[in-house]
Amino acid sequence: MTYTAAMRDLIKRVEATRDARLGKDFPRMTPQEKQDVLKNHHPDFIEHEFRQARLGPNKGDRFPHELCDVLEAYPMYDCNSFRADTVDQKVDVLIIGGGGAGASAALLAHQQGANVLLTTKLRFGDANTVMAQGGIQAASKPNDSPAIHYLDAMGGGHYNNIPELVKALVTDAPLVLQWLEDLGCMFDKLDDGTMLTIHGGGTSRKRMHSARDYTGVEIMRVLRDEVLARDINVCEFSAAVELLLDEKGRAAGAVLYNMETDQYQIVQAKTVILATGGLGRLHTQNFPTSNHYGATADGLVLAYRVGAKLVFMDTIQYHPTGVAYPEQVAGFLVTEKVRGLGATPVNIDGEQFVYHLETRDVASAAIIRECARGSGLTSPSGTPGVWLDSPLIERIHGEGTIARELPAMFRQFSRFDVDMRHDPILVYPTLHYQNGGVLIGDTGETSVENLYVAGEASGGVHGRNRLMGNSLMDILVFGRRAGLHAAQKAGGMKDFAPKLSIEHVKTFVSDLEAQGIAKTVTSPILLPFRHRLNPNLQL
Amino acid sequence: MTDHTTTQGNKGALAGRETVEVYIMGKRYVMPSSLTVMKGFEYAGYTLLRGCGCRAGFCGACATVYRVGKDHALKVGLACQTKVEQDMYLTQIPFYPHHKVGYNLDELRATADQVIEIYPELSKCLGCNSCSNVCPQQLKVMKYVSHAIRGEVSAAADESFDCLMCGLCASKCPANIVHYKVAILCRRLHSKYLAKKAEHLKHRVKELDAGSFDHLLLGLMNAEKATLVEKYNQRDME
């Protein structure tokens, strides 16, 4: 699956201009140019791809069709089979989701002495966390500060970010980094202990800390090892399919579904933390996605049914550099670290057309525009793309840099006989991240008492566009905050004897029926729709 | 492996495509040759639950073993990163048990005997190299195990860094070593005790504890959007 002869010919055009491009920064866009390219070419602005929610806490708000489809759907669990007096397990803190947010919440809650149950749909650690390659942001260096980090995040999010959440992010970030260092995370360092940092899209300081290009893998496997070493109760292949409330409308447990035996279990909890990740696997607008298999918006569905409000769910992040070739790995992420190290996007004629470190939304829109103009390429499977001139990295930083700094990327392309040290790679935007989610406060608590949300399932901290390395940090900042506060709150609930209720779901069903919504979909869907997972296979 | 069941995938998707015959757990399927093993499963009609995670080579959920045609050699790969090929006989090994090991990292030392104290079975390594041969990341597993046995914690950490903890190494070990657990212990010990701590980070945490940035941040939090926009557009770039 090496490059075809036709592609080889086109690569010559990229090679022909490389010397002239080396060392010259393409001009950044002006604020007005950014607005223009977003309005005209970003998928968030294609009106017919959205509709208004017909019911629930965000009734009237504009959501992608694919999200509405699962929000405005009937429960998979039969509410009539629920019996409030048959509780299978009672815990202090129930954590739903086994990625970085769930794991860090579990560690902090356990540290507070809470009886914790972490339940997760797939394996513990199967999450987008492990797919974060390039780095994690924290203002740890003397020339940087949490205030500069704050400004970068706000500007990146188009000033829509919720200030309290951004403050929590930027002030906790160095503490989280130190916590990880102390847990034994193997960050890239000089011999004297100085952490290596590089730029990411939209950063004004080199703030991206990394563990080669397995940053998320390294963080997840350390957190998981720590959870297991402390013998915290973890239940895998067990999805939450509904939240339960007490008689006062506070979160008080969940219905769990054993994915392998089809059995349901009722868990009573003093506090509940949703850390279920995002919606990438809904494949909005049929985009390929860089997301994990389990990213099916389950937590949004559950939270919506108990009345928690969603924010910024009309904005999705498309990562500018998804793989467009080879076909086997189409949609996979080419980490932003590749651009951080100096690789630039160029068109079919070998011309750069956008500054290589614009924010993700702007860079994606610029690539979509370049292809719409007819200056992109067409991959052998018929999809569009532009070149990402990776050999520049070796020219700038010396031979061997790619194998050393980008082992995962290098390995991934090598497996399919593409040598990114010598040849550029073909890329196109891929669905990467839900910028919004369930609205939280700075402890992670939602508008529903005793319900906390952390990680990609939550919304507000990134406004309308997240910067690279801020989500890997946010899952830990808010995972820890949620874990701490949920455990402390549970600690104060000594005589907890709730009357568990699922009436809210029955009410939701009545609303669906009143709206005349047909029972075509049940949710949470738990696993991706087959036809969206592999669109080119006609399943 | 002689069950010649006809293809169960969507034949429409085969039109005009190069195809291969793949045997999933001994059952034959005809599928486009452009697929990965993971997509091959899905093409064949499977809905994966175990054996599927990130789908991009990072999580280690989809370890797969296979043989091709008459070649007796056992091959390995991650299902999401391995192309289907003609006469492939495959199955997934999505789970392989490890034993429960509890430790408190704060109470450990990064000494030569620490790792072998926790994982004494390391000393039974036969040096057969089966672990390295079965690693889908092509790591030199036996080499890092040797480092661990000799107490060379940092070398074991470095050599094992790209491990995804899929468990195939442990499935093949005649000494019942759980290599990937040894590896993560080495990495954590190295990072906590042997690598120097980041002084700039300690300093920043002290500043935060002292509330050094509170005033600046409060100013930004209360600023009008226009002020923020101006400040953002005038940032000096490192």
Task: Describe the overall structure.
The complex is a heterodimer of chains A (539) and B (238). Chain A is an alpha/beta fold. Chain A has 16 helices and 22 strands. Chain A folds into 2 domains: 5-41 and 320-430, Flavocytochrome C3, Chain A, domain 1 (Alpha-Beta Complex); 75-133 and 150-167 and 179-187 and 214-315 and 435-491, FAD/NAD(P)-binding domain. Chain B has 2 domains: 11-92, Ubiquitin-like (UB roll), CATH 3.10.20.30; 105-194, no CATH class. At the A-B interface, helix 5, helix 6, helix 7 and helix 13 of A face helix 1, helix 7, helix 8, helix 9 and helix 10 of B.
Key words describing this protein structure:
heterodimer, A: 539 residues, alpha/beta, Flavocytochrome C3, Chain A, domain 1, FAD/NAD(P)-binding domain, 2 domains, seven-stranded mixed β-sheet, 22 strands, B: 238 residues, Ubiquitin-like (UB roll), five-stranded mixed β-sheet, 10 helices, 5 strands, 35% helix
Strand % of chain A is 15-25%
H/E element string of chain B? EEHEEEHHHHHHHHH
Q: How many separate structural domains of chain A?
A: 2
Helicity level of chain A? 25-40%
Layout of SSEs?
The complex is a heterodimer of chains A (539) and B (238).
Chain A lengths: L4 H17 L9 H11 L8 E3 L9 E3 H7 L2 E2 L13 E8 L3 H12 L4 E4 L16 E2 L8 H11 L6 H21 L13 E2 L9 E2 L5 H15 L3 E3 L2 E8 L5 E8 L5 E11 L23 H8 L4 E2 L4 E8 L13 H4 L4 E2 L13 H13 L4 E2 L5 E5 L2 H7 L3 H5 L1 H8 L10 E10 L2 E3 L11 E3 L4 E2 L10 H22 L11 H12 L7 E2 L6 H4 L6
Parallel strand pairs in A: 3-22, 4-5, 4-12, 5-9, 12-20, 19-21
Antiparallel strand pairs in A: 1-2, 6-8, 7-8, 10-11, 11-12, 13-19, 14-18, 15-17, 16-17, 17-18
Chain B lengths: L18 E6 L2 E6 L4 H8 L18 E6 L6 E4 L9 E5 L21 H5 L11 H4 L7 H9 L3 H7 L8 H5 L6 H16 L4 H11 L4 H9 L2 H9 L5
Parallel strand pairs in B: 1-5
Antiparallel strand pairs in B: 1-2, 3-4, 3-5
Helix pairs in contact in B: 4-5, 4-7, 5-7
